[in-house]
């Protein structure tokens, strides 16, 4: 009998009994007031007169009216650069203990995003919320006695003067509470290995020593790790070595594009739970099995605003125009893509995180990630978002009975001086007629997106497809020193980067 598991499960159920449903609008107003109060004496708080904002009878509107939008480049140029020049109390009291290094999927250079102790606490609280929500998934008691494989970036953080630097997954894993360490795999020693291939090799070698009940990590890298374990032990599937694997916690990207290839590595179904941990904070987590949407963490260190994702509000570089309207959580609607704006306990203010989301349940504050502002392909009016591209890829998988686990796209002129969408699709499919795939992809996008259909009848001349091994996408990331951890493939490339990509593929 799973005695410890029954105790843990009982505590989770008891906690739920005494929990009340969150009023997300009220929680958000309280979070904003707390953020302003704590930061009113910072350089940023004094510059934007937080003291006066706190006295406003319409504090959320006054906040939006008084402070401009910031993306990383703007807030770093105006404010965060001071953190590296021995200044304190810049956008948050004191100095951050960590900087999350994030090259993201669009930037040319690494970002250094401050992570304060207050943010570490907020991330931990959000993680606890996720644990308590497991009650809703009707997992057996013995699940709570199994180990959890968390595959992120290295926890061997770099020491830089008065702070530590690393990817957010490594920072989070290095701050796991002591009571959780016995559950955490691959353990401290292996998780500190910086070379991703070496770390995965050690995981494969030790895999038989662990009783893994849950996995957590970016889908593409989890898949590669599972493939390595299966290959190393000559298995049919991962359940041959981890028979009690029951849960996979995905994060960072939509799981849909990886679902078919992920399931091929399993011997039996597992529960997939989506989470949304970004370098800037723990945004949302799935709390119930009836949906794969995630609930915003509205009461825990992050204040959210939502800008309707419309071409007239977006600059060519993916930033927001100053006149773009921002809505609060009590003003949003269903069936509308929004650019996500956050203000946080790490000193990010009205910060464009770069993701677009839509609400699936307003009362529960549940969302889905629909794409990236810089992955919005609007060349010649096609207005393609990542979720539309993902849906088209799922259609292709059904039609051609294969998996396309990775892809990237660029809109550019061809040799005939006409505009085309150039797609590279990652699949082990061989002997394929790429023109047939291009025609099927084109038809799927026309059916799903009227703007794309109109563009195809005018300036967008056609679709060109190249099918390559998924490994080439991982090689590309490795070449750019972006293998493992929080790394995600860029879905839409600029012409300059696409030229570099094609040279790499052809070379």
Automatic annotation (TrEMBL):
Source superkingdom: Bacteria
Domain GH3 middle, chain residue ranges per copy: 298-364
Pfam family, one: GH3_M
Record domain GH3 C-terminal: where: 390-495
Database matches in InterPro entries: GH3, GH3_C, GH3_M
Alphabetical list of PANTHER family matching this protein: GH3 DOMAIN-CONTAINING PROTEIN (PTHR31901:SF9)
Protein name per the record: GH3 auxin-responsive promoter family protein
Originating species: Winogradskyella marina
């Amino acid at each position: 009998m799973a005695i410890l598991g029954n105790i843990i499960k009982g505590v989770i159920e008891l906690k739920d009994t005494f929990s009340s449903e969150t009023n997300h609008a009220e929680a958000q107003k309280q979070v904003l007031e707390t953020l302003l109060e704590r930061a009113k004496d910072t350089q940023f708080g004094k510059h934007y007169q937080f003291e006066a904002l706190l006295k406003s009878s319409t504090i959320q509107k006054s906040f939006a009216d008084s402070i401009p939008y910031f993306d990383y480049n703007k807030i770093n140029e105006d404010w965060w650069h001071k953190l590296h020049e021995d200044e304190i109390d810049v956008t948050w009291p004191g100095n951050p203990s960590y900087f999350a290094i994030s090259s993201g999927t669009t930037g040319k250079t690494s970002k250094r995003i401050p992570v304060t102790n207050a943010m570490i606490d907020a991330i931990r609280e959000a993680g606890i919320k996720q644990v308590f929500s497991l009650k809703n998934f009707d997992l057996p008691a013995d699940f709570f006695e199994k180990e959890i494989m968390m595959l992120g970036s290295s926890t061997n953080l770099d020491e830089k003067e008065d702070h530590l630097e690393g990817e957010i997954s490594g920072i989070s894993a290095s701050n796991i509470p002591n009571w959780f360490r016995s559950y955490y795999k691959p353990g401290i020693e292996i998780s500190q290995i910086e070379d991703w291939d070496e770390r995965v090799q050690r995981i494969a070698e030790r895999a038989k020593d662990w009783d893994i009940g849950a996995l957590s990590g970016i889908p593409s890298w989890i898949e590669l790790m599972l493939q390595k374990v299966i290959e190393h032990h000559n298995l049919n599937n991962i359940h041959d070595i981890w028979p009690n694997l029951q849960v996979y916690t995905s994060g960072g990207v939509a799981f849909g594009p990886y679902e078919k290839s992920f399931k091929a590595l399993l011997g039996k179904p597992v529960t997939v739970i989506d989470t949304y941990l970004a370098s800037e904070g723990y945004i949302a987590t799935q709390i119930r099995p009836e949906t794969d949407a995630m609930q915003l963490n509205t009461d825990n260190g992050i204040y959210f605003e939502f800008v309707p994702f419309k071409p007239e509000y977006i600059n060519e570089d993916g930033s927001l125009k100053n006149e773009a309207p921002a809505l609060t959580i009590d003003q949003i609607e269903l069936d509308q893509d929004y650019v996500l704006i956050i203000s946080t306990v790490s000193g990010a203010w009205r910060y464009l995180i770069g993701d677009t989301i839509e609400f699936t349940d307003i009362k529960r504050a549940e969302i889905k990630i629909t794409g990236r502002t810089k992955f919005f392909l609007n060349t010649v009016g096609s207005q393609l978002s990542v979720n539309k591209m993902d849906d088209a890829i799922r259609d292709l998988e059904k039609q051609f009975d294969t998996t396309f686990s990775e892809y990237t796209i660029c809109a550019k002129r061809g040799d005939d001086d006409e505009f085309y969408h150039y797609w590279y699709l990652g699949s082990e499919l061989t002997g394929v007629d790429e023109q047939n795939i291009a025609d099927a992809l084109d038809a799927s996008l026309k059916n799903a997106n009227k703007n794309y259909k109109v563009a195809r009848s005018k300036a967008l001349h056609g679709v060109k497809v190249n099918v390559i091994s998924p490994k080439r996408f991982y090689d590309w990331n490795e070449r750019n020193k972006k293998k493992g951890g929080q790394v995600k493939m860029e879905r839409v490339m600029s012409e300059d980067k696409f030229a570099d990509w094609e040279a790499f593929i052809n070379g």
